[in-house]
Amino acid sequence: MARGIRTPRTAAPNAARRRRRVMFGVMFGVMFGVMSALIVPRAGVARDGVARDGERIESHADGPADASSLHDPFVRVITLSDHNTRVVLLGTMALGASGGVIGVFMLLRKQTLVGDVVSHAALPGVAIAFLAMEWIEPGTGKSLPGLLVGAALSGIAGVLCVQAIGRWTRVKEDAALAVVLSVFFGVGIALFTIVQRLPSGNAAGLAHFIYGKAAAMKADDVWFIGGAAMLAVATCAALFKEFRLVAFDARFAAVQGWPVAVLDSVLMGLVVLICVIGLRSVGLLLVVAMLTVPAAAAQCWSERLATMGVIAAMFGAFGAGLGVAISAAVPRVATGATIVLCGSAVFLASLAVGTRHGLVWRFARAARREASSMPSAEEGHPGQGGP
Amino acid sequence: MRASNGAAARTGPDDGRSEPSPLSIRDLTVAYHLKPVIWDIDYEAPSGRLIAIVGPNGAGKSTMLAACLDLIPRTTGEVRIFGRPFRSQRGRVGYVPQRESVDWDFPVSALDVVAMGLYHRIGWCRPVTRRYRREALAALERVGMAEFASRQIRQLSGGQQQRVFLARALAQDADLYLMDEPFAGVDAATELVIVDLLRDLRSSGKTVLVVHHDLQTVEEYFDEVVLLNMRLVAAGPVEQVFTPQNLRKTYGGRLALLDRVGNRFTFGPGE
Lengths: 387, 271
Description:
The structure holds two protein chains of two kinds.
Chain A: H1 14-39, E1 49-50, E2 56-58, H2 67-70, H3 73-78, H4 83-108, H5 112-136, H6 144-168, H7 173-197, H8 208-211, H9 219-238, H10 240-248, H11 250-255, H12 260-282, H13 287-299, H14 305-329, H15 335-353, H16 359-373
Antiparallel strand pairs in A: 1-2
Chain B: H1 6-10, E1 23-32, E2 35-45, E3 50-54, H2 61-68, E4 76-81, E5 93-96, H3 110-115, H4 119-122, H5 130-142, H6 158-171, E6 176-180, H7 188-203, E7 207-211, H8 215-221, E8 224-229, E9 231-237, H9 238-241, H10 244-251, H11 255-267
Parallel strand pairs in B: 3-7, 3-8, 5-6, 6-7
Antiparallel strand pairs in B: 1-2, 1-4, 8-9
Helix pairs in contact in B: 5-6, 6-7, 10-11
């Protein structure tokens, strides 16, 4: 932050800084390696393939170069020969990156669980939107924009309920979060059983909203998700200073005349946006992980908010990309779960070797201290051997 | 936001040489859930003085500051800052909250925190440019913390953190400062720095209200004192108001402390 001003860095041991750089390098090297293995199409493998859902996307007249490898699903993912996989990969990576950035601010504002409320509260909205659209014009219930608008509206309603309970009753905030989350989710499940009984409801695939199915993403969805992710990240970048102030010291921000409630609402709106676009790909049960896991992992690496945001975006994109790749290669694995598991792996690695309170470093330091407090054997002379 | 800055306000209609009091409070009552916390406060702060707000725990000292700064709703009453509502005078008021009110594990450096005092001048969506960072660094220098500018705030001691908060208020270049317990839990070096700073502010004509806990140092550090225990017990120059009788009225039954202070009054040097 203090770029441009030469401020003496007191007591920032060079060794620690070097170690930080090295660890950054290793971590991002690993991530970059894995991602480039996924993204860069391998030379010599024909680029035509059959999309997973059976629809033929592109084909070359030359014919398949190596039929056996084409049918190996893992190779198909690695080489990104599926148009569909590429689309899904891009979409979820954009989602992961933006989720990471928003998540950092949520984490610092101590509002991470609000994301959980939004996603769970979105469920009744999906069901109601489906029922409403079917009622108005049968057969249109599956229209994704309509369902997402429903999800967004009821997600916002959930957040407003939490705020109303906090404001006008004596129920504490954590209880309010839990109550609203379960009530909305319960209503959503109840409505879903009604939807399932409808003749058109079964085919609608609404269950994908719960567990997520990234493979169902289409090129149009990716444009939509990419646009929303860009919007979210751009808003965060523009309001970086304001969000930081409100997250650090809301009282001071209020005294200075910043509209704290408005800024909080903007942040909440971004959370709703991420949750809604994440509903389809990772599912409402796990979309909160897109907001929290990369942010929590980034916290292990940096003491600068801007750096934290960049790292969280990278972690989010990486976890999402790897998760999609694995779930595309291994049949019948829910995408949402895989994405979260990959993100969790990054999180655990960060906890262990993160440059800021990494567990490994802490143990190493403790061990070194113990070693140095003892009379060290290495200092002995060669001719130390017994009398 | 920027229009409400000092310069614009000073050329207001009710200007003139006799500027209104930096802080005037009339009939101020604040209640939480129908239970009054402060009751019917009337106070007019003299200009250019160091003023201590003293009272037992739960007397409503912080509440009074919060009510003056529109942080909590006032049940009744009116607060004027230099003769106008606080809303139009934000640029002229510097606020130092209690140190415990924020999370010091937050990923910002000392310089970042101080720069927050300049945000209202920087304006919406603009980055903190080099010019403002330099100003923030100058404010840090005034509290003797320039060498810690790039430190993450968790790595600072309690006293250093308090100084960072003071620097943030200094960066605002306000005319009235409201400080909530700046002396709480600080080391001796920081206490000296703060006292020097307060005198510095006074000599440049600023008015400073400080919520203060340590009765021993009131006479030494401050010109004026406000004794508060839900109601305003007494207010005025230290030598007139800071008496055992008034303290007894303020602190009620807590006699152990009072007798000590009382003794100092009766038998202390200078009596």
